[in-house]
Amino acid sequence: MYSIVFLPILKSHLIPCRLHNCVPFEFDDKSKRFTKSSRNLRTSQFQCFISILYSFAMLAFLLFGQITRTDKFQGAVFFMLSLLASITRWTNIVDNDTIQVINTFLEFEKTAVLLDDGYTFVNSRTMKGMKYFILLMEFSLPLFSILQILLLVFIPCTPPFLMSMSSSCRSSVTPLRLCNIRFVLHLADLWILSNNIFSAAIPILFVLCGGAVSFLAYFNILKGRIKETEISHNLSDCIHLYRSIQLLEKSFNSILMHRVIPPVMMLTAGIQIVGLYVYITHHKDIPTHPGLLIFPLVGIEGIICNVLIFTVASFVYTSSLHVLRSLRKRAGNMRETKSWTASKELKSLTFMSVKFASNFVDGGTPLSIQTFCMNQIASLCLLQVDHRNLN
Description:
Blueprint: H1 2-20, E1 25-28, E2 33-36, H2 38-64, H3 69-88, H4 97-111, H5 118-122, H6 125-154, H7 180-232, H8 236-259, H9 261-281, H10 294-333, H11 337-346, E3 355-356, E4 359-360, H12 365-390
Antiparallel strand pairs: 1-2, 3-4
Helix pairs in contact: 1-6, 1-7, 2-3, 2-7, 3-7, 3-9, 4-7, 4-8, 6-7, 6-10, 7-8, 7-10, 9-10, 9-12, 10-11, 10-12
Protein name: Gustatory receptor
Keywords: Membrane, Transmembrane, Transmembrane helix
Transmembrane segments: 46-67, 132-155, 197-219, 260-280, 292-318
């Protein structure tokens, strides 16, 4: 569950966040909860404002800059990554939504869920898979910064970074000690994107991903309690736990359905499409160097994010339906007055899901996203082949 599996990873993630001053909260060891940090609030707000301006500057340069088509596709990967991080990191600042949801999970597990059941779910396949995925992403965050600086060292004018926006920018490698302006601009690029990705990782990895898997663990606990009703003939505790999980789901979806899941769904798909397209069709146009690895890295991680995140999110819907069927079946098998009362209460219960906008994630969502992405990649590759044949 959350406090056992994801909280230790989140606490370690806050170490580089404190170095960047990119999140306005910290973990209080006494209360075992996340608390607001007033000293970092203004710094985080300033960074968010800078990241939005940075993304708009990238977009303007890609649309109106005098660069080749290859450079535009190449720069679109970095623009979408910057835009995704800029949008999602606002959740950390607006009304402290991120820490409120995380604290709600921690309080729910302390009061409504038996913590001694946690061992079973720590070792479940879904929980372990999500844990390793988050650890992989934690490793990729600093790796992305390293590859970015390598890319800028070998090709200083890589669009759409700040140096490429200068009309006097040259592609030849110049010693950094002789080019102070270039050095400062590269550091600014690194600082902005590094702050963005470390801050945006919290609502995506530790709220969306960690929260969805935690719901599955809670449903497994509830299924075990439903089986115990064969002896106790009492469904009231199970119904009460389901309602408690449903209240948690409302709080969970309140910040994700408009501010996190829509940009994650659209922009990770875009990153996957453009990243793999650039690596497949334009790799010959980009000089070979270690920074080139950044394109397959973001493309493959885009696939992993889309498949894993939304597959696990769809399990929330299917698992809640299974729990409701189990509750209604158990209530139907009982012939007591309490069973009739429980049946009346069960009619008011609805399924739970991970919502985005006015829709929700079901079993067909991950397949639809991947079908769309693969069709777009294939179409772009075919258009590129036709364009080369015409020339």
